[in-house]
Specification:
With 352 residues, the chain is mostly beta strands. The protein has helices at residues 42-46, 181-184, 271-293, 300-304, and strands at residues 4-8, 23-28, 54-55, 66-72, 76-84, 104-110, 118-123, 129-134, 144-145, 154-160, 172-180, 200-209, 212-215, 218-221, 233-236, 252-256, 308-310, 313-315, 317-322, 325-331, 337-342, 347-351. The chain is globular.
């Protein structure tokens, strides 16, 4: 099928329905960080907390608070999180089992922000971990590399209370993680080959929490009257707006600053990212149309609606239909780069 391209421009559209993901500035430490789950080093004490986690759909306040910090040095990317929890429990002890069947803490990392080739990490209060590599999000039916490991990772848990003891009330638990850069950057050609100083990555965090019941004095996930497990709670740093962590375009922005911990800094999301948000809104609209009608939308006016203006600049969006699917493209009025989202959700940015 010959390629067909439609272009739409104008000045009427405003971004009322796009909410910016959250941002965090990770500063560089020269202090030796001991991974013990406590975050007691001076660098951690000077480092700012993230915002409190929110419900994954963005409209509810979780029952218990969760917050996270980040640091980095030339060898590792560090995470420290604290989670309020009156009953700290865990049962899973085998690496790479499905950790979110326990209460857990999760990290999602997409270094180059193309929504493909990203990493997922989970851990429970027993310090059992699950790390996996996703070629594409689940919505694209791509393979999941479950045997992939973050070699050299360091993890620890600290419990403010007692583990698996239903006879008392705990304050919570904290986790500390050090991920080696040489693993995180190895599959991502666009980002720096060593550390991403002065760059940003797309990262998000999730905390899965379950209602529980006691069976023979031991914790387990609670079941309803129908014998099925009650649904879990999903609490996240940057809202996903749907109950699905595997829409990486919603993840937060982490900027890697060379400054020492404790300094006050500002960092703005690049304007091209705002165009990218719009392209992904249209991508999801195309996917929904295909699910409902069994075919792609071929009218750009129907797909886009009113014209697109971002930060006062009109943005030309093109829909290209081809034998393998379609591309959505926009030329940035800010950088001149050609921004593309393909039918499989992959994002590409290149000089025009």
């Amino acid at each position: 099928m010959a390629a067909v391209c439609f272009v739409y421009t104008g000045t009427l559209f405003a971004q009322q329905n796009i909410v910016a993901p959250r941002q965090y500035i990770a500063q560089k430490t020269s202090e030796r960080i001991t991974i013990d789950g406590k975050g007691a080093e001076a660098s951690w004490q000077k480092t700012a907390w993230s915002e409190d986690f929110i419900d994954i759909e963005g409209d509810k306040t979780p029952a218990y608070k969760t917050k996270v910090k980040m640091l980095w040095d030339d060898e590792y990317l560090y995470f420290y999180a604290e989670m309020e929890e009156p009953h700290v429990w865990a049962t899973l002890k085998q690496r790479d089992t499905v950790i979110f069947y326990n209460n857990d803490f999760e990290i999602f990392i997409d270094p180059d922000g193309d929504t493909h080739n990203y990493m997922e990490f989970e851990m429970n209060a027993l310090n059992t971990i699950w790390d996996l590599y996703l070629v594409k999000p689940y919505r694209e039916s791509a393979p999941v590399i479950d045997s992939w490991d973050i070699q050299g990772i360091k993890t620890a848990v600290h419990i403010d209370g007692t583990l698996n003891n239903p006879n008392d009330t705990d304050k919570g638990w904290s986790v500390e993680v050090a991920m080696p850069w040489n693993v995180l950057v190895e599959a991502h050609g666009r980002v720096s080959p060593t550390t991403p100083e002065n760059e940003f990555w797309r990262i998000n965090f999730s905390r899965v929490n379950w209602d529980f019941e006691l069976v023979d004095g031991k914790y387990q996930r609670k079941k309803g009257k129908d014998g099925k497990y009650l649904p879990e709670y999903n609490w996240v740093w940057s809202p996903q707006w749907v109950i699905n962590m595997h829409e990486p375009e919603w993840w937060g922005y982490v900027y890697f600053s060379p400054e020492k911990p404790g300094g006050k800094e500002d960092h703005s999301i690049p304007q091209d990212e705002k165009i990218k948000w719009k392209l992904y809104e249209l991508y999801r609209k195309q996917k929904q149309h295909f699910q409902e009608h069994g075919k792609w939308m071929n009218s750009l006016r129907e797909l886009v609606g009113k014209s697109v203006v971002i930060d006062g600049k009109p943005v030309k969006i093109a829909l290209e239909l081809h034998s393998m699917g379609w591309n959505l493209t926009a030329t940035s009025p800010f950088t001149g780069r050609l921004l593309t989202v393909k039918e499989d959700g992959k994002f590409i940015s290149k000089n025009n």
